[in-house]
Amino acid sequence: MSAHSRLAPSSAFRWVPCPLSVALGEQFPALHEHPAGPEGTAAHWVWYQMLRVEAPKLGDMTPEGLPVTDEMLEGALQFVNKVFSIANPHNAMSKVRLEQPVSMTGLHALMFGTPDGSIDLLEECGEYHLIDYKFGHRAVSPFENLQLASYVFGEFERLELSGEQIDNAKIFFHIVQPRCFHNRPESMTWETTGKQLRRLWTMLNNSAEEAITHELSARSQVGPHCRDCPGRRACPTLRTNADANIDWINRSWPAEMPIEAASLELKFVRAALAQMEAHASGLEEQITYALENGKLAPDWVLERGKGRGKSWTVDEREIFALADLLNSDPEIKPEQRIDLAKPRALITPSQAESLFKKKGFDSDVIAGYSKPNPGSVSLKAKSDSLAKSVFGAKS
To answer: pTM higher than 0.90 for the full model?
Structure first.
């Protein structure tokens, strides 16, 4: 198997409704790595270590070079608890598979992927569980989840189950998403059967065949999936819809519409806004990439915003040594003692400055051990940037 499937199950939500997105994304790949990518990979590493090796500690470095955070540890514990809650009642931890690649040749010869976790309880109670970990904030539903439907097809293919066994199997899709605060546990599991999943497998098979056979002449369709398509900046269908939306927005409207018409119109407006946002994000990525590489883009500039907070510039041992030095002064009163640690971690530079002021010490000393965090770079219209520099206006 190659490193990544052309028909990745994790992207099925996009290429099933829009087979063109496969070839288009290959011809026009993303210009920037999504900032959440390395963080999500690191978060997956934390729960894997917790289940299979040894639980990482706060501040340990992940293979991606990111430190383990409280959020990663808490999210990993949720995933581990979900696995235990399913396997332990059946004494079936030996049936748990973690990060094991599976192929789905029955859907397409080029299709394979790696489920986060699966638990085979077919012999124990006729159940098969797929557990997927999402570290992002955007809600992911287990209901008719095409990624998990692909994985379970591959798992059943691996087990060489008969058609009757597949139809009768009780299948559970679980999503563990610790940082999606409006998703509740009751909405994070979907129960179905192999027989009910056959409709989704047919959709996956048909779209996979079309995507690979027809490539850039494959069917295309705009929708919420456009937001995550790497080729959206060059998509003719998205551009055509965006142009049509602009023409539609510029039409004249009566002062007030009947409530029935307004209700229907609101559905169209929200769909149009989603399409326009997807189109805009693709253009923003293209222009930002050009400016970062020294090219000129008429009407646009890159600006760095003001950063929030500060970061330490030295090893934490030097920070604690500073506190020990101050605390060793015989004239220091007990209430003036400096404690730069909080539970499980070093406090931030800003917190240290406040603490120094409170204890009667010169907080400027912290400046020698820290630096302001840089602000994020964003794309600005030149007119907005000029107004900001001349008039001090907020852009």
So the answer is: no
The position carrying tokens 């015989």 is: 330
Q: For the segment 257-272, what is each residue's pLDDT rounded down to a tens digit?
A: 677 767 776 777 787 7
Q: How far apart are CA 131 and CA 175, in angstroms?
A: 6
In the chain, domain spans: 9-217, 224-292, 310-372
> Which of 114, 106, 133 lies closest to 1 in space, CA to CA?
114
**132 forms bridges with which residues in the sheet?**
175
- Pairwise pLDDT comparison (210 vs 234), residue with the higher score: 210
Does residue 197 or residue 291 have the better pLDDT? 197
Q: Which two tokens stand for residue 328?
A: 């060793």
3-state secondary structure 334-394: HHHCCCCEECCEECCHHHHHHHHHHHCCCHHHHHHHEEECCCCEEEEEHHHHHHHHHHCCC
Separation between Cα atoms, residue 245 and residue 144, nearest integer Å: 30
Query: Can you tell me the distance from the alpha carbon of 86 to that of 98, in angstroms, rounded to the nearest whole number?
Result: 14
Task: Reduce the DSSP state of residue 178 to 3 states and report it.
Answer: coil
Q: Indicate the CATH number for domain 9-217.
A: 3.90.320
Distance CA 200, CA 194 (A): 10
Q: Which of 86, 150, 156 minimizes the C-alpha distance to 121?
A: 86
pLDDT single digits (tens) 226-253: 888 888 888 888 777 766 666 666 665 5
| Mean pLDDT on 141-154 | 96
The reported pLDDT for the residue numbered 125 is 96
| CB count in 10 Å sphere of residue 346 | 16
Q: Which tokens is 137 given?
A: 């904030």
Higher pLDDT, 70 or 375: 70
Strand partners for 381: 300
Residues 341, 322 contacting (CB under 8 angstroms): no
Mean pLDDT score across all residues of the chain: 84
Q: Are strands 310-312 and 370-372 parallel, antiparallel or unpaired?
A: antiparallel
